[in-house]
Amino acid sequence: MGVRMKEVASRAGVSVKTVSNVVNGYLHVAPTTRERVQQAIDEMGYRPNLSARSLRSGRTGIIAVALPRLDEPYFAELAAAVIEVAEQRGCTVLVDQTDGLREREQVAVAGIRPDLIDGLILSPLALGADDLVSPAAGAPPLVLLGERVSDTGFDHVAIDNVAAARTATDHLLSLGRRRLAAIGGMQAVAAQTARLRLEGFAAALQDAGRTVLPGHVQEVEAFRREDGARAMDRLLDLPEPPDAVYCFSDLLALGALHALHRRGVRVPQDVAVIGTDDIAESRFSTPTLSTVVQDQVEIATLAVEALLHRLDGGHDDAPREHTVGFELRVRESTVAGAR
Amino acid sequence: MGVRMKEVASRAGVSVKTVSNVVNGYLHVAPTTRERVQQAIDEMGYRPNLSARSLRSGRTGIIAVALPRLDEPYFAELAAAVIEVAEQRGCTVLVDQTDGLREREQVAVAGIRPDLIDGLILSPLALGADDLVSPAAGAPPLVLLGERVSDTGFDHVAIDNVAAARTATDHLLSLGRRRLAAIGGMQAVAAQTARLRLEGFAAALQDAGRTVLPGHVQEVEAFRREDGARAMDRLLDLPEPPDAVYCFSDLLALGALHALHRRGVRVPQDVAVIGTDDIAESRFSTPTLSTVVQDQVEIATLAVEALLHRLDGGHDDAPREHTVGFELRVRESTVAGAR
DNA sequence: CGCCTGTGTTCCAACGATGTAAACCGGACA
DNA sequence: TGTCCGGTTTACATCGTTGGAACACAGGCG
Q1: Residue A2 and residue B114: Cβ atoms within 8 Å?
Q2: Best label site of A263, B122, B250, B312, fewest CB within 10 Å?
Q3: Which domains does chain A have, with CATH numbers?
């Protein structure tokens, strides 16, 4: 163990509490005392014991972020942003992987190590409204990312998925494509994100006076490359394959690109492809991938600040909804005119 | 806060210590007492307060993993593996991003929140031997990943980079390629990994009776896609461009593929490309990428277990070296015969 | 000159768990 | 009957910190 507050105190010739006051920036400490104490702290390299502090104060300075898997680029980038933002705010981040399993998400909400964590940022995949009805008494504050699971009484940060889906779909229509398909539908009851993107897709088609062709919405098990590739294979096997595909994630889109390439279909000439997320990989794929972006740093910032706000006395404020913007990025996979 | 041990004790009609004994599986507790206490625990949903336990026992059950950036797929996959393995062993994982900066790696070694962490797994980029000479007294045990910084007195998990580089290079030679280039050299003093891979590359060429052609070893700033793309551009601008490229990471290789495609060079017909790491992306790129793999789960397992071993009394054991195997995965980017 | 106010500091009791040493208890043995 | 003994349980101090009450001391006021 390192230096204790007691030792600093005796070196500075004051009591332990005075050292504590200096460390915590308490107001009424004489400048000369403060300086003397600070000097002792620096000389001895004192750093407060967080277990003790947390035992006493109930705060640890640790927040947890629970997400499906860290090896999916979207979540990795999200986690990176959360860690960076949290660090700027003086917090450390503990990462929990839920695998998108309801059970594990429930555990996370109930509080992974409730006494160690000041708050939780959760990116739910499987969790439904039922799981969130009664926040456990001792559970730390919670911020939900992604789609609103329904009115849950928790803070929430999301993009407008319906509008984002419309934007992507409109873009494909603007290229003159007519047989539009979507990859990423999901059966799971709780798959709000997929449902909303599908809703936006269908709405955009309808507004353009078109309808969703049979078989042109492909369901997937998860938003992975292999699911995208398989879905694309199925689309290509249709009697009237699509000439444009909207994918609910970049990974799905990259999988689709892979399948298209394997079968010798040209992108964007034969089939235009657009994704969602703008992960780094999409800027280097062959061809580069058009996509709809949400700003991860903005999401992370809003989430961390929402947590910190609750911790700083905002315990009982009404839950807030934050909606972050999105943006269309056009790259090679949907270049206009290339036909 | 939740239930306290005191309340469980009074409910079971025993002292606090007895509850503690039951919780910690102490031997001499009468079966009937144990059962009564256990029942009280279950009924009240008691869970020990970890801050308090850690204050008293000095253990938190949290290990930290410090790596450059979570949004680089290689490290994301590594972190995912560490978290998974740690969880199986009952530990939670705190993630710290160093950005590969020496200063931040030093901070990590000195102990990010030393009292909160039982041990640290560090994947150093910039850290040299000097930074590791004198383990701070209070600092938690440390396991180094990747190249041995030199004899540092710490446990270490790595692959044999020289052998891996030889394997990759030999593979390119076996295709009949003659003008081999490497992407990934680094100037930084501490860039051991780059140096060793370069060493293996050069040795393999020499054994085949060839030498490294001028300009055929491209330096990079970091192992990112954009660095790979730029390096590939420079190689293609040479009077005698290479017909095969060994990249020190998959990201570099993917960047190189991107540059090759942009300039209309065919892979593998005109230039064969091989990477290192086997990140998921490499299995879906166009063309799919050949690579040399190390087993991330094995690395993570060895690292976590090395830490736990130290914690379980192995404090003063001699530092151990673990070398994990690697394997060549041949994909489209180096298909033999395609010329 | 004593009283009050406000500032700066100290003392003491927590926070919730665990290690230590001592107490308890019934039975075995002398 | 008394002592000893092992297993079982308890009381108490303790980990390092912070909150609150208490205290000391100055200056301003009546």
Answers
A1: yes
A2: B312
A3: 1-44 (1.10.260.40), 161-294 (3.40.50.2300)
